Amino acid sequence: MSEKKNILVVDDELGPRESLRMILKDSYDVVTAPDGRKALDILSRREFDVVILDIRMAEMGGLEVLREIKSRSPETEVVMITAYASIDTAKDALRYGALDYLIKPFDHRDVRGVVERGLKAREGRAGDKLEMAKLRIADSSLNQEVAAARRTIGQQYAATVKSLLSAIDGRDGYTQGHSERVSRFSAFLAEKAGFPPEKILTLEQAALIHDIGNVGVDAALLSKPGRLTPEEFSEVRKHPAIGAQIVASVDFLQEMLPVILHHHERFDGTGFPDGLKGEGIPMAARVVSVAGAVDAMLTDRPFRRALSLEAVREEMVRSAGRQFDPEIVRIALSGGVLECYMGIFS
Asked: Residue 79 in 3-state DSSP?
């Protein structure tokens, strides 16, 4: 008799939690957790094949738990539980690695079906992982050639995107060259922050395409001379998610996705698109956030002239700990870094 697969059900409501347990208990080893933190504690001590996770929980939201699960154990398949009112949020969860979602009230056939799909997906991942291990053992030199080819393709792709960004810059003279300047300044800050060389290269490439999502935004909004209306600003705020969608299907660009998606998060948690806070924001995105803001302030914009170097310093000090990582601000303001920036692009 084969060993039962392990399923973890996480829901802060007893009814749905127990319903799922009853549906699955005859075929699987089912463990339940009443909130996200207890679920993560259980996962730290035991491996599960599929996690069924409520998207709305009082203490720790389902998206936050999902991200933590995927960071710890990417091969664990996660199915979200949602209501009709939260379907859009559930679809967002797919972007973070969820396999699928169940809508309350759920049918027992749907539950069993999605769990079976999760187990098949996990088995497929395990099989792929084993095959890759065999290939590495059999011919490490081939892997090196593949890695070199992937880097070449990545560089070619970045060059293509750079050309596309140049076309976007051409539509808006106020932001011409912004991406390239942010890319170079981000690399400079990252070096000062002690990033290893390979991470600096990835960051530089990611910063180059950090605003690629602007291709999905009306050009008139990007160059509007006055303040944006709330509706217009809402449209502009979509560009990180649009950019993430553009690169999501390109495997070798996955390292760049956190910068593209999170460069408008704020250190105090009031940014977008996900309201990440403090060290919850990827470090590379925090660097690009500072570099992008410095370049924006030192550049003429439709609604104002470029600020003086002293005014930029004052604004960075005011915004440290609110908009920006204080440590990255400290690096940017120390040792003539801003003066160096002015020298590079003057």
From this structure: strand
User: What pTM, to 2 d.p., does this model score?
Assistant: 0.54
pLDDT given at position 1: 44
Residue 143 · residue 133 · CB < 8 Å: no
Measure the CA–CA gap between 324 and 266, rounded to whole angstroms: 6
> How many angstroms separate the CA atoms of 23 and 10, rounded?
14
| Residue 282, preceding peptide bond in cis (omega within 30° of 0) | no
| Confidence at residue 327, expressed as pLDDT on a 0 to 100 scale | 96
- CA 194, CA 327: separation in Å to the nearest integer? 12
**Residue range 6-138, CATH number:** 3.40.50.2300
Average pLDDT across each block of 10 residues of the chain; the chain has 346 residues. List them in order.
83 91 93 94 92 89 90 88 72 82 85 89 67 55 64 65 60 67 92 92 88 81 81 90 84 84 97 96 97 90 82 95 96 82 63
Q: What is the DSSP string of 285-337?
A: HHHHHHHHHHHHHTS-BTTBPPPPHHHHHHHHHHHBTTTB-HHHHHHHHSTTH
Instruction: Dihedral sign for Cα 216, 221, 223, 228, please.
Output: negative
Domains of the chain, residue spans: 6-138, 149-345
Distances (CA, A) of 138 to 40, 125, 131, 141, 150: 37, 20, 10, 9, 20
- CA distance linking residue 91 with residue 228, whole number of Å: 28
Q: CATH class for domain 149-345?
A: mainly alpha
Q: Which structure tokens are listed for 244?
A: 């993430």
